[in-house]
Design a protein that fits this description.
Strand content: 5-15%
Shape: elongated
Number of strands: 5
Radius of gyration: 25 Å
Helix content: 55-70%
Number of helices: 4
Order of helices and strands: HHHHEEEEE
Oligomer: single chain
Structural class: mainly alpha
Length: 164
């Protein structure tokens, strides 16, 4: 798998960067779409809460609901609003990180370009290109011992499939 990622020439650099970006994005698209849907739902609910709180305040002012009832209800709605705003902020941060990860494909290609053509994969090169390798516990599947390995490249994270 790594040989497919490390063999490119200068003329292929832009195509390679696009390939890396696409692979990184493909790995994250489902998660990004779910987050975007959640952002939309949160925005909609925040608008609803604003309308509800405004209406409740008017009901309190015109004595349609008691002060005690207003206090309890508004506290609950305000708590929900605070939690939603916090979650919204968390999701926006994650979405920004995904955007940054896509941009990092170019940084990875630039780093890789310093070492091309790659004649031998040595410890220095692997430490430069690979951020981390996760080796999972052995498991038995179809009477075979399988030990999944995930490779996370510097700047671009995990791309492609796990090695077993």
């Amino acid at each position: 798998d790594i040989n497919r990622h490390i063999s490119f020439s200068q003329k292929d650099k832009s195509a390679y960067i696009q390939q890396l970006a696409n692979q990184a994005n493909n790995n994250l698209n489902d998660e990004k779409n779910a987050y975007q849907k959640e952002l939309n739902n949160i925005s909609h609910r925040l608008e609803e809460l604003n309308t509800i709180l405004q209406s409740m305040y008017e009901d309190k002012v015109f004595h349609k609901i008691s002060e005690e009832r207003y206090t309890v209800m508004s506290a609950n709605f305000e708590k929900e609003e605070t939690e939603l705003k916090q979650r919204y902020s968390e999701i926006k941060t994650k979405m920004f990180q995904y955007t940054q990860q896509s941009k990092s494909a170019k940084e990875f290609a630039n780093l890789l370009e310093q070492y091309t053509p790659i004649v031998k994969l040595d410890a220095v090169l692997l430490n430069t290109l690979i951020e981390k390798i996760i080796v999972h516990e052995k498991r038995n599947e179809n009477r075979q011992k399988i030990m999944p390995i995930e490779i996370y490249y510097r700047f671009i994270g995990k791309i492609g499939i796990d090695i077993t």
